[in-house]
C-alpha cells in the first residue's frame, strides 16, 4: 500500500513507486495502491495486447531450439501458447497477468531464462507466478513430482490457473499421441499423478476442472469434488489445526 494520501504532491507518490512502476511513467494511471499487482510495462507496450505479444515473442525466442517429446517434434512454444489459449477460450480468463504467466511458465524451468530476467522484463507479479509454477531442478524426479502435489493447494490463484491449463494441455497431448519412449503404462501413471496435483487445485475454475474431470475419467482417474485437504506438514498450516 502506498503511504501517500490522495492530496499529497507528486513527489511523495514518486518516492513510493517501485522501479517497475517508474517504467510506467508514460501512462496516466501510474499511481496505484498496490505496487505488487502491477506488471512492468516498457514504454512500447501501449496496451495489454502489445504486452501479451511482447510476452509471446520473449517466450518464442527462449524456447526456439526446444521441441516437444511427440514423434513430430512439435515446436515447444506450442505448449505455453496452447496453455494461455485454453485459459482464455475455455477458462474465460481475461487477467492478462495470468495469460502472461501461462506463456512464460516453462521459460525458467526449461531454458536459460532467470527469474531476475522475468522480473526485469515483466515485473514482480509475473516473476512470482512463474516461480510458483517452476519445478526445482535440484530435486530428484520423484521429489519434484511429490513437491508439485504438496504445493498445488498452497500457491496463488494465478498460479493455480496456470497449473490447470498446463495439465489440461499436457493430458490432451498425451491422448493425442504418446511421447517417444513413453509406454502406455507411463501415460497412465502421468494421468494418476496429474489427478493428485489437480485435486489440490479444485475450486479455482469450474469449466477447466470439469474438462479435466472428464479427461482423467478416460484413464479411470476419478477427481473428488472437493479440494484436497492441506497437509499438516506444510509450513503455512498451523500444527494446532
Ligand atoms: N504430454 C506431453 N508432454 C510433453 C511433451 N513434450 C514435452 N512434454 C513435457 O514433459 C513433461 C512431462 O514429462 P515428465 O517426464 O513427467 O516430466 P519432466 O520432463 O519434467 O521430467 C511436461 O512438463 P511440464 O509442462 O513441466 O509439466 P508437468 O510435468 O509439471 O506436468 C510436459 O510439458 C509431449 O509431447 N507431450
UniProtKB/TrEMBL annotation:
Q: Which PANTHER family match?
A: GUANOSINE-3',5'-BIS(DIPHOSPHATE) 3'-PYROPHOSPHOHYDROLASE MESH1
Family in the record: Belongs to the MESH1 family.
Q: Which Gene3D superfamilies match?
A: Hypothetical protein af1432
Q: Which domain of life is it from?
A: Eukaryota
Keyword list, A-Z: Hydrolase, Manganese, Metal-binding
Q: What is this protein called?
A: Guanosine-3',5'-bis(diphosphate) 3'-pyrophosphohydrolase MESH1
Recorded GO MF terms: guanosine-3',5'-bis(diphosphate) 3'-diphosphatase activity; metal ion binding
Gene behind this chain?
A: RvY_03702-1
Which PROSITE patterns does the UniProt entry name for this protein?
Answer: HD
Protein task: ppGpp hydrolyzing enzyme involved in starvation response.
Statement: the UniProt record of this protein carries the keyword Ribonucleoprotein:
no
Its UniProt entry gives the catalysed reaction(s) as: guanosine 3',5'-bis(diphosphate) + H2O = GDP + diphosphate + H(+)
Instruction: Indicate the secretion signal residues.
Output: none
The record places domain HD at 76-171
Give the E.C. number(s): 3.1.7.2
Lineage, uppermost ranks: Eukaryota, Metazoa, Ecdysozoa, Tardigrada, Eutardigrada
Q: Which InterPro entries match?
A: HD/PDEase_dom, HD_domain, MESH1
* Entry keyword annotation includes Manganese: yes
Amino acid at each position: 500500500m502506498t503511504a501517500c494520501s490522495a492530496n499529497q504532491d507528486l513527489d511523495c507518490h514518486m518516492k513510493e513507486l517501485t522501479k517497475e512502476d517508474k517504467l510506467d511513467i508514460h501512462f496516466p494511471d501510474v499511481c496505484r495502491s498496490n505496487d505488487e499487482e502491477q506488471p512492468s510495462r516498457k514504454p512500447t507496450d501501449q496496451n495489454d495486447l502489445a504486452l501479451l505479444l511482447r510476452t509471446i515473442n520473449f517466450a518464442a525466442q527462449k524456447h526456439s531450439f526446444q521441441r516437444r517429446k511427440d514423434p513430430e517434434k512439435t515446436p515447444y512454444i506450442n505448449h505455453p501458447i496452447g496453455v494461455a489459449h485454453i485459459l482464455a477460450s475455455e477458462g474465460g480468463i481475461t487477467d492478462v497477468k495470468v495469460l502472461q504467466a501461462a506463456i512464460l511458465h516453462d521459460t525458467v524451468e526449461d531454458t536459460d531464462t532467470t527469474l531476475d530476467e522475468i522480473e526485469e522484463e515483466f515485473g514482480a507479479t509475473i516473476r512470482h507466478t512463474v516461480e510458483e509454477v517452476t519445478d526445482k531442478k535440484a530435486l530428484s524426479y520423484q521429489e519434484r513430482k511429490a513437491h508439485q502435489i504438496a504445493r498445488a493447494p498452497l500457491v496463488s490463484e494465478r498460479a493455480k490457473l496456470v497449473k490447470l491449463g498446463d495439465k489440461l494441455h499436457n493430458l490432451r497431448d498425451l491422448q493425442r499421441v504418446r511421447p517417444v519412449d513413453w509406454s502406455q503404462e507411463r501415460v497412465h501413471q502421468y494421468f494418476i499423478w496429474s489427478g493428485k496435483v489437480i485435486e489440490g487445485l479444485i475450486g479455482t475454475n469450474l469449466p477447466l476442472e470439469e474438462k479435466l474431470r472428464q479427461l482423467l475419467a478416460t484413464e479411470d482417474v476419478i477427481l473428488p469434488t472437493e479440494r484436497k485437504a492441506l497437509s499438516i506438514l506444510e509450513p503455512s498450516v498451523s500444527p494446532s489445526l
